[in-house]
Design a protein that fits this description.
mainly alpha; single chain; 8 helices; 268 residues; 3% strand
């Protein structure tokens, strides 16, 4: 029997139902919190976003990017899995992704198709280099600083991609509620594929990880966008605070344990 000591424990949580519940809520918080800073507090508005390097989106990205960098450093320095540190880093990556995607697609004017294509290329390139360097992109193998660096880089790209993709779909006709249903249905398809086929579990994980972000983006926009645009027009700061409280409560209540890296198995 293989001994599972601390050296074989991943620095990320086991991928369970509770993981996906908190992940979706964290991505929703990332949308409302990112919009709170860039739009509500810094005065950026979606219809009139200036085509300028200096915008609320850029300032918001700098703020959340700095927070993300500190949290990733702490995550890598930590000797073991810490639930609150991990999920704080996830929230920071998704808020930074929100403001960065909005800056690319709106302030720089490359649009949703251009932004989504560019960010998808970044995600795929990150996964490719990670695999070529370490031989695996399994999240269970995130036990070393190099693996953690690739993990957080890939996650940040995926969070940014998800924001652009969610906005693109919602603004193309279905609206925020319709977009949420579309991405929810896509996730349901992945679940069905997981239980009914032999498709790579690693590929399905990353596909699901990416799709939870636009789901959270469209749900977040549905909560805080004006009624005239298909939203509920809730206060962004209030919605963010409520989501934060719910996430903290779920982390305390739902099982949060480190994933295990199966030593001796073939990389994939």
């Amino acid at each position: 029997m293989i001994s599972m000591d601390r050296d074989t424990l991943s620095k990320v949580p086991a991928v369970t139902l509770s993981f996906w519940i908190v992940k979706i809520l964290a991505t929703t918080l990332g949308e409302t919190a990112g919009d709170t800073v860039s739009m509500t507090w810094l005065g950026e508005t979606t219809p009139n976003a200036p085509h300028s390097w200096l915008s609320g989106y850029l300032v918001g990205t700098a703020i959340f990017g700095a927070i993300l960098a500190v949290l990733v450093w702490l995550q890598i320095r930590a000797r073991r899995f810490h639930p609150f540190l991990y999920w704080a880093t996830i929230v920071a990556s998704t808020t930074a992704g929100t403001t960065l995607a909005d800056f690319c697609t709106r302030s720089l004017g490359i649009g949703y198709p251009g932004g989504s294509t560019l960010l998808l290329a970044c995600v795929l390139a990150s996964l490719f280099v990670w695999y070529r360097t370490l031989g695996t992109v399994r999240v269970e193998s995130v036990t070393t600083p190099p693996a953690e660096a690739f993990y957080w880089l890939t996650i940040t790209f995926s969070q940014t991609l998800g924001t652009a993709l969610g906005d693109w779909v919602a603004d193309s006709g279905p609206g925020y509620a319709g977009g949420a249903l579309i991405f929810g249905a896509a996730l349901a398809v992945l679940v069905a594929l997981y239980y009914s086929t032999a498709i790579s579990r690693v590929g399905l994980f990353w596909a699901a990880f990416i799709l939870t972000r636009p789901l959270g983006a469209t749900v977040g926009d549905f909560l805080d966008k004006p009624v005239a645009k298909g939203g509920l027009e809730f206060s962004r700061p209030l919605a963010s605070m409520v989501l934060l409280v719910v996430i903290v409560a779920l982390i305390l209540v739902l099982p949060q344990r480190a994933g295990r890296h199966p030593v001796g198995t073939q990389p994939a």
